[in-house]
Amino acid sequence: MTISIHSILPALNNIFLMLFLGYFVLGVVSVAIDFEAMDCACAEDSWIWLYALLVLVIPTSMGVVMGFIKGAMAAADLEAKLGFDTAIFTALPPPILYVTLGILGIVLWANMTELCDTYYETHHPLLLGIFHIQVIIMSIASVFGLLACWGMTMVVVKQIWPMGEDTAETSKSV
Questions:
Q1: In total, how many domains does the chain have?
Q2: Using one digit for the tens of pLDDT, what is the confidence trace for 78-101?
Q3: Residue 172 lies in a domain
Q4: 116-140 residue pLDDT tens
Q5: Which distant-in-sequence residues (6+ apart) come within 8 Å of 173 by Cβ?
Q6: Cβ contact 98:134 at 8 Å
Q7: Is residue 167 one of the residues assigned to a domain?
Q8: How does pLDDT run across 3-42, given as a tens digit for each residue?
Q9: Can you give the residue range of the structural domain that contains 41?
Q10: pTM
Q11: Fewer C-beta neighbours within 10 Å, C or N terminus of the chain?
Q12: Cα(80)–Cα(6) distance, rounded to whole angstroms?
């Protein structure tokens, strides 16, 4: 009996969705239960409660907004009117957001004092755990976001300045 990747993918997809749902529910519970962390003494320097809220709300809502924008752009038939692929306008904001949130999370975690870390560890451990998970996830997403931004930039450059047959032949010989 051979196992193909196509038979494993649905199970992996379900596992990923369950893990994401668990993380999301735990994040919402953490933000709701630890709302006092928003006004604590360390909140002015570390604001991990706000970061946890931002990482839960913004990427999720951005997907919905980008879906509406993509539908409106398709309905307006902008591709035909402008003469180039407009999918870049809906594909570029999420990677930029991931890079921004990844860098912000790393900076917040790196600049958190030992006193604040101890405070959050004793008074808001769930929030601190969710914050750490979110920073790790957003850091990984920011690496892929940088790669996506670079790739999309290359696509835009190629659309604006297409390489002709003569230029391609010359660049190969050099």
A1: 1
A2: 777 776 677 777 888 899 999 999
A3: no
A4: 999 999 999 999 999 999 999 999 9
A5: none
A6: no
A7: no
A8: 777 778 888 888 988 998 998 999 999 999 999 988 888 8
A9: 8-162
A10: 0.78
A11: N
A12: 37
